[in-house]
Amino acid sequence: MQTRKKYIFLTFLVSWLLLFFFGGDHLRHFAFFSGRKAEARRNWPLWTDRSLLKSFADPEELQSDGDPSLPSPRERRAAWLSIYKNSRCRMETCFDFSRCEKHGFKVFTYPRERDQPLSESYGKILTSIERSRYYTPNPEEACLFILSIDTLDRDHLSGQYVRNVNEKIRGFPLWNGGRNHLIFNLYSGTWPNYTEDLGFDIGQAILAKASFYTETFRPGFDISIPLFSKDHPQRGGERGWLYQDSIPPKKKYLLVFKGKRYLTGIGSGTRNALHHIHNGKDIISLTTCKHGKDWEKHKDTRCDKDNVDYEKFDYQELLHNSTFCIVPRGRRLGSFRFLEALQAACIPVLLSDGWELPFAEAIDWGKAAVVGNERLLLQIPSAVRCIHPERVLAFQQQTQFLWDAYFSSVDKIVRTTLEIIKDRLLPHRSRSRFLWNTLPGGLLALPDFSTHPGDFPFYYLRHGSSPSEKFTAFIRAVSPASSLSQPILRLIQAVSGSHYCAQILVLWSCEKPPPPSGKWPQTTVPLTIIQGRRKLSDRFFPYAAIQTDAVLSLDEHTSLSTSEVDFAFVVWRSFPERIVGFPAWSHFWDAEQRRWGYTSKWTNELSIVLTAAAFYHRYYHSLFTEYLPAGLRELVDGLAACEDILMNVLVAAVTKLPPIKVTQRKQHKETVPQQVKGMAGTAGGRRFSQRQDCLNQLADWFGYMPLVSSQLRLDPVLFKDQVSVLRKKYPRLEKP
Length: 736
Known about the structure:
By secondary structure, the chain is an alpha/beta fold. Helices cover 31% and strands 14% of the residues. It is built from 23 helices and 23 strands. The protein has an eight-stranded mixed sheet, with helices on both faces. Strands 1-2-4-6-7 form a five-stranded parallel sheet, with helices on one face. A five-stranded parallel sheet has the order 9-8-10-11-12. α6 (120-131) crosses α15. The longest helix is centred in the first third of the chain and has 26 residues, at 2-27. It is globular, with a radius of gyration of 34 Å. Residues 103-384 form the Exostosin GT47 domain. Its EC number is 2.4.1.224.
């Protein structure tokens, strides 16, 4: 009986404990407990208490949880689905791969109509495509199609808004519901919500859009591009602001922002809160509401003071002298400030929730930007202060690389877009994220050559490897004589005497057939004759016979000794990404003529090493032939000695480094063939004029002058020192 009472008592006690813990919140509704609970509860302050939160925010701000004009995710999704019926598109379902099988990745732009308005920015995009190596004027060869209708600004309040787009594109016989089409857009939607409404149905087209929401972005199909202004350069572009040893990681200001503050509407909440982190010392946050037509009607109590403080600082000075730059959302998710911060090496601190970052499919933004949360603005200062100086410098360097590689011009933005689409067509031959995020970048690392970083000349040091220990001698012969001349015989003997030589290839660029094999000299290495097309650009074609990493490019009249070849090759193995050779020129800016010039005189500077006697990596053959558009190769074929200049310009554009000159016994004397098909003129002034024209046309095509000058010449140790010959490794270099 006692045991039974104990069990009943324990059951009753446990029931009360469970009721107390799990139902305690409901007990306060009973009058019996209300008095005690009221006494027990601590009198906490209200969260909008003006005296406690005075230094952080006004109660009016805190009462509103978010911007009421901001559409909810469900509303944005509904608006998207009402316009874009193919929201589930993927490359496998909405792209016809068969169009790309026969002719490869070719891009066709619709013919431009005379009465069709075209913005300056869209004109630049179309020009970039038509200048690219993928352009085709034949729609039957095309894999991808670009509309001639300007779709960049789809704000119907804008003067550049094109109406009746649906009716126009339906009349295009190639439209096919948008399949295999690419549409560019910078501005979508309009006041007050700025939704992603483009005003027409894109069908199954790929959308390359700025300010892309992650919720409406179709991964692996759409492409997020940066927002750029109409003044963004067509090609070339300005350099980044971070120069070697010129800017320390820690600058005058830690964190800055200077820009518009929206008083009402979408995007106003984030920018209205920026004044909370301003301390006037190392964190500068300046806003102005003095913009737009009706700003005075909506101005608040802070406007007048903000407008005065706004004028005290120069925007460019803040960019130059700040480590981090706040990049908040505007009316749309993206802003011009993003590219401005990248160029200035001011690490972007992004406050734009839901923004699909530009080219995020390829670019690792975690190495170049700080992605913040709009609701956690007050944590940003402490977060950036915790970043180690070494990592800050790495961030700054990455901003400069990304700016130069993908964003400094419209050309690069468009080419990056096209290359990402091309990689999707052949995933097994696509670039890795390592290639996209490491110098020189994905645009200059061709997957058609290789997808393994160790095969490129840029990554040997990073991977702890070295180029192959042999080279291929590549001699271009243009002599019309049926018998071999003495210079080429001596050259073959000297080159084959090098124990680094793997093979000799002779590019026969004459109308007459080459001499029979019996008349060629006997060598210890294989000698192969390749029949050329008698074009100057042939010498840089990626011939399958070239198997070594190093190529020794030679003209038939070049005079070199075995010691010179050996020493130059040893030097090249230490600098495999550069051109290493003997005869050198230098370029200069002629202020009177206002054009670029060159000189072949021996001076203290050099920027061009002639490929008549030079080592370089075989990858540059692929880059020369496949990366450069056909128009540049045609330019080379029509101008004398332009191929030397173009190869040097190309390598300098890739590496941002000058070539290397090594010592030679005799000064190089250029020999001019008497008859060479495809070369205009002979020797003398006409050749000099053509080279000047070539140099200036290349600078115009690249948008800047890529050549880099140097005052360096490498000689062997103890070269011409008064010591015993037995102590010198290359004593024959000193013999006349």
